[in-house]
Amino acid sequence: MSDDQPTVPIRCPECGTETRLPLDTVGDALERHNESRHDGEQVATVDPAIREQVAELAAADLGLTDGSN
C-alpha cells in the first residue's frame, strides 16, 4: 500500500469503532465486517459526510448537475 493512497473514515456505531482505510479496500472491508459482525446488516459505513461529498463529486463528473436546483 502506498503512503499516497487516500484513506476513508469508517464508523461502526454498534461496535464503537472508527478507523481509516485505504480507498481501494473500503468496500471489501465493510462487507467483511458487516457479514462477520452484524449478519450482513449495513451497520458499519463510510462517514456520512464523506459519502455525501463523494456522491456530489461523482454527479458533477457525470454531468448530472446543472446548477438549476
UniProtKB/TrEMBL annotation:
Q: How is this protein named in the record?
A: DUF8149 domain-containing protein
The highest taxon in the source lineage is Archaea
- What InterPro entries does its record include? DUF8149 (IPR058462)
State the species of origin: Halosegnis rubeus
Domain DUF8149 positions: 2-67
